DNA sequence: TATACTTGCGAGCGATTACTCACTTTTATA
DNA sequence: TATAAAAGTGAGTAATCGCTCGCAAGTATA
């Protein structure tokens, strides 16, 4: 063996996400991670100082992946409503293929104990909400979306709505097709945001 | 001492909810519960067979409290939209005063390990969604709400929206006034559900 | 090849925690 | 009042888990 640390770090992060998705955060012990990677448990601590640091890295990694996946819709061309529709679709698709994200995000223990993780999560959420807010203002400027709604507040609620759906999916152990929820979800958001006719 | 078990059970459940609200689920050890109640730790097991059983009882208890609190709006008189508005207000008010509920609900470890708890949670959620769906159908029948939206799906999404807001509140450690979110939240729901004019 | 650094591991420590057990005290009942 | 059941406790157990330590093996560089 003796791989370079960067590579091992990736393996450890991937193992963490895999295990979180399939077993839940609690069972992602350093031993379980080590087994999954194929190294001894103390070796894990050669690459991360603490267990929490692994989770922070995992959350950051998957957060970046999400943003990379959605960036095209945040700032693409075309009408704001269509882009928002596609954003919702892409987001649910991404999350349905990265179950570790909700598992980490919705585990109480993490942010209660790790200020670092809390920061990482807040950064992702704020960035996301900001982008959606901008899209809504674009839609309002183009006369596509209701002027009566506050863009920031609405963006916040759209995010909450998606989170709520994802949370249910996670709580109920992924037992429905998340990506398929994109259409009714968009129907609801469209009814709330778009001007009629 | 030597109180009747029913009374102690209540005290243990209340202590569990208090501690979950203030410290997070992970720190609700049987020792912490015992200290909070003022009994020895082994005594806890006189009243509940396992720690999980305590959580199940706590969730059920608070779920019943929520339903009792909302029952008036589910089946009261008056237009469906006003009742739904009041329901949202009452719900956020109740949850803001019972922080143990989101803490228990959004902790991953519980439902992953306890099928019983999962059942209890599902029962609460399904009952809630059913009632909201009925209200929406009433609103549609009265010409107040859009016919184009599916009542069941919309009820599900309204529930998800509220859950999303509450989850954020919980994730961010209760650092904003949840009850105050009722108005913008209702503004969004109304825009989605109500016919215009 | 000599040197320094990185990666790896076996063994084990210290702390935590749900739960048990043997035994006492209190409460309810015949 | 005698008896049984319920409620309570101190002491302890077994298991888990994050993390450390000392040492070996591999790797890069001069």
Describe this structure in words.
- 2 copies of one chain form a homodimer.
- In chain A, α1 packs across α2 (30-37), α4 (51-75) runs parallel beside α8 and α5 (80-96) packs antiparallel against α8.
- Chain A is mostly helical and 197 residues long.
- Chain A folds into 2 domains: 1-48, Arc Repressor Mutant, subunit A, CATH 1.10.10; 53-193, Tetracycline Repressor, domain 2 (Orthogonal Bundle).
- The mean pLDDT of chain A is 92.
- Chain A starts with a helix and ends with a helix.
- In chain A, 75% of the residues lie in helices and 0% in strands.
- Chain A is built from 10 helices and no strands.
- Chain A binds chain B through residues 23-26, 103, 105-109, 111-113, 121-122, 125, 146, 148-150, 153-154, 157, 159-165, 167-168, 170-173, 184-185, 187-189, 191-193, 196, and chain B through 23-26, 103, 105-109, 111-113, 121-122, 125, 146, 148-150, 153-154, 157, 159-165, 167-168, 170-173, 184-185, 187-189, 191-193, 196.
